[in-house]
């Protein structure tokens, strides 16, 4: 184990589902690399794997939606994290979703979500950071619960091939 592994192994970030829509396509994936990156102006960055179909759709999208899930929504996380649209899977077929600001696709059962306008794309290796300017937010009514974290999702195999 390297020093970097010692550091990153202690992290337990919130997991997000990021959705994108462009050119008549919808895509979404489970993301573990995401963070607020500016206070003024408020900005958020999500990092999408270049191996992921969502990355390809997001590359043509003006807006992305970012959703927090609860631990009780592990099945929803597994759908977006362990399945791939490249195999013809329509991840949105059995979930409640709505089109929101800028054509963004919002999962209606997410306890918290926001739509962000893409203001910058940063190539950082095998992931690209999409810096978002939040333009709309909301969340599902009902009980919340603890957020889904990395440790809760370790059993979800990635839906895209490893490079």
From TrEMBL:
Residues 137-163 are annotated as: Disordered. It is an enzyme of class 1 (oxidoreductase). Its EC number is 1.5.1.-. GO terms for molecular function: oxidoreductase activity. InterPro entries: Flavin_Rdtase-like_dom, NADH-dep_flavin_reductase, Split_barrel_FMN-bd. Keywords: Oxidoreductase. Residues 15-156 form the Flavin reductase like domain. This is Flavin reductase family protein. The keyword Zinc-finger does not apply. It comes from the Bacteria.
